[in-house]
Amino acid sequence: MVGENVKVDVYPIQQAIRIAREQGLDLVEISPNADPPVCKVVDYSKFKYEQKKKQKEIKAKTQKVILKEIRFGPNTEEHDFNFKVRHAQNFLQEGAKVKATVTFIGRTIVYKERGEILLLKFAQALEDVGKVEQLPKLEGKRMSIIIAPKAKK
Questions:
Q1: Residue 103 in contact with residue 73, Cβ under 8 Å?
Q2: What does each of the 153 residues of the chain score in pLDDT, given as a tens digit?
Q3: Is-contact 43 26, C-beta < 8 A?
Q4: CB 23 within 8 A of CB 43
Q5: Which of 33, 37, 92, 121 could be disulfide-bonded to 129 (CB atoms 3.0-4.6 Å)?
Q6: How far apart are CA 118 and CA 115, in angstroms?
């Protein structure tokens, strides 16, 4: 048993509970797998509050993944392609993932290979700042590829 105003020692359960009640506090089991189990004399509501606060702090520090989408048609011209590549480079440098999508409208679905070539060319243009996470995949009338930023050295 550990805690403030408590001699760190091994106590029988009944004695540990009595010591905690005398101080007007609770007996909380900290590590049940230890031999013997470790308990702490604390105010349980304060203990729960601090645990919640730690969890919130950890959650705030985690990095959120942002996914930016760039859309193409199967007949996208060189200038438009280059313009969108520059935007994708900026997104990747900021740490966001990029999803490039070729949308086939009407009868353009017959040009699936054009869309795939366009997406592979797009991935090749971005290989210095990003790595392909998902190869071109056709889902209905859309073909998409996902590119993640390269890890900074």
A1: yes
A2: 787 778 888 888 888 888 888 888 888 888 888 888 888 888 888 888 988 999 998 888 777 788 899 999 888 899 999 999 999 999 988 888 999 999 998 888 887 888 889 999 999 999 888 899 888 888 888 999 999 998 765
A3: yes
A4: no
A5: 92
A6: 5
Return d(Cα 149, Cα 89) in angstroms, integer. 9
Q: Which amino acid is at 24?
A: G
Q: For residue 152, what pLDDT is reported?
A: 67
CATH (one of 2.30.29.30, 3.30.479.10, 3.40.50.970, 3.10.20.80) for 2-59: 3.10.20.80
- Dist. CA 66–CA 113, nearest whole Å: 29
φ/ψ of 18, rounded to 5, equals: -65, -45
